Amino acid sequence: MERVPILKLGDLLIISIQIDLDDQSVLALQEDLADRVVATGARGVIIDITAVEIIDSFIGRMFATIAGMCRMLDAETVVVGMRPAVAITLVELGLSLGGVRTALDLEKGVALLGDAGRGAGR
Amino acid sequence: MTVHADVARERIEELLRTAEERILRRWSTIARTPADELHDLYQALRTALGQEQQDLSDVRGLLAELSRARARQGHTPSDTARAVYGLKEAVYELVETDGDPEALRGFIWFSRLIDDLGLYTIETYAAAREKVILDQAEQLLELSTPVVKLWDGIVAVPLVGTLDSARTQVVMEKLLQTLVETGSEHAVIDITGVPAVDTEVAQHLLKTVVAARLMGAECVISGISPQIAYTIVTLGIEFGDIVTKATLADALAYALRRSGIEVGERRRTRVAVRTEDA
User: Fold this and answer.
1) Which of A59, A76, A88 is the best mutation test for B, with the most CBs of B within 10 A?
2) Does the pTM exceed 0.80?
3) Pairing of strands A44-48, A76-80
4) In which band, very low, low, confident or very high, does the pLDDT at B22 lie, cut at 50, 70 and 90?
């Protein structure tokens, strides 16, 4: 089973998914992430899916689960880099990823979390 | 095929072979077409008839070419068909002088063959027309969905005409693609040019907005006329938390504000001179 690496950048955790996710690696990722958020005290989590071409309902739900989990641990989740085709598929499937924030690319995702962090700190 | 019919056919084929020069000349006069244009066709027809299987594909190919060439010159398809039918007349004159009952019987068969070929020219013409129409419809689809950049990070899609599933799909894909390419975080869908909004159209619009949201961009729908607003409320369509504006200008102002750009008027007194009274 392939494991998805979790990178730390400042107080953000960045997950770049570059493999075809199967159910096992999704579950492993969720566990790993929860551990890392607690260990690092991260303020934000960015999931980069630029390289993902296919998203099924299971992975769609993963985003919501991760977002919910991170919110419990006081970290914001942003999904970035979704491809148009993937977005259309998700809409057709009826999944709107409620509660998950999105951004066009990694840079904008980081900016989004930066703004939110400042807003919260004020 | 009976022996009788075979004999009749052979008689016609023989006539076509022996009196080639005469038939061609007569055909060219009747069809008002230069003989050299018809010569190839005549040869192909004769070769086809000479074969066991009677493979007419060569003849059809030549006919298609002829009807296309003539269509370009402005001839109607009936003209082309009539030109093909001219061969019947030319051959009939020959059969009449020949007076052989076998040849007369064979002529019926020959005439049926030529009828088929004549109809084929019309089919070719119709197929060519059909293709032009299809191409144009596709071009129209492309033309009618431009994505324009209004500002850095703000794009707009002015929709004109009736929205159906196929068009919405094209609009959706093009808009999302542009969002990725330009890195725009704000999109305005302007429906000023959409004559009517029903539940289906609204559903399509909502899907586009949600897809853009999934990618991390925000969509504003503008150009909602009083009439459309009334229809939407009467139909009970829920737009939820999607931002809607009356005009494109309002939507642009909103998008600018959201992306943190301030637009203010320059403080300067303008002197306006009315020339009407002068």
Assistant:
1) A88
2) no
3) parallel
4) confident
